[in-house]
Amino acid sequence: MDTTSIKKSLRAETLARRDALPADYRREGSESMAKVALNLAPGTVVSGFWPMRTEVDVRILMDSLAAQGLRICLPAILDKTTIVFREYLPDHAMVDMGFGTMGPPAHSAVLDPTVMLVPLVAFDNRGHRIGYGAGYYDRAIAALHAKGILPRLIGIAFDCQEVDRVPDEPHDVRLSEMLTESGLRAFEPG
């Protein structure tokens, strides 16, 4: 089987496991992740994401980080290949971003995150991930790298989303850490 077919199969299997988690379990897991200390300095720019379907609800974590003095931003889809990160203020109105997500309106400040909470479908114990297949995060991370910004990449998922091995390709960027309901763990460099 080729890489694309393997990723498609892993996506389907992993999403089925995540979708099968009871709503109470997902809520409690999301709340426990919000209590994990990420040890970030006030003013640090952190990108989060608006949860869709049965993803971890990172809004709890984002609100906690904002209360600690961090600047939060969310992805905004500009076109079929590009996202930027707009500043998220918990008390401001959000707009429909498509794909079942919400984000800050167009007049919001565009920020370059130095820490990214990365959504994903599946991950392995090497720090490789499978997203939803559009490549937005790979391109956004590459754009940050081109600016000289090497963000701390923290994957966000439930434990059931771990797979034995994600097939990796040259353009894939490894996560440095993974946050699940079991806690925060770092991946070995390289």
Automatic annotation (TrEMBL):
Query: Which Gene3D superfamilies does UniProt cross-reference here?
Result: NagB/RpiA/CoA transferase-like (3.40.50.10420)
Any idea which GO molecular function terms this record carries?
5-formyltetrahydrofolate cyclo-ligase activity; ATP binding; metal ion binding
The GO biological-process annotations, alphabetized, read as: folic acid-containing compound biosynthetic process; tetrahydrofolate interconversion
Q: Which residues bind ATP?
A: 7-11, 129-137
Identify the EC number(s): 6.3.3.2
Cofactor(s) in the UniProt record: Mg(2+)
What Pfam families does this protein map onto? 5-FTHF_cyc-lig (PF01812)
Q: Which reaction does it catalyse?
A: (6S)-5-formyl-5,6,7,8-tetrahydrofolate + ATP = (6R)-5,10-methenyltetrahydrofolate + ADP + phosphate
Which residues make up the binding site for substrate?
Answer: 55
Under the heading InterPro entries, the entry gives: FTHF_cligase, FTHF_cligase-like_sf, NagB/RpiA_transferase-like
* Keywords per UniProt: ATP-binding, Ligase, Magnesium, Metal-binding, Nucleotide-binding
Into which family does the record put it?
Belongs to the 5-formyltetrahydrofolate cyclo-ligase family.
What is this protein's record name? 5-formyltetrahydrofolate cyclo-ligase
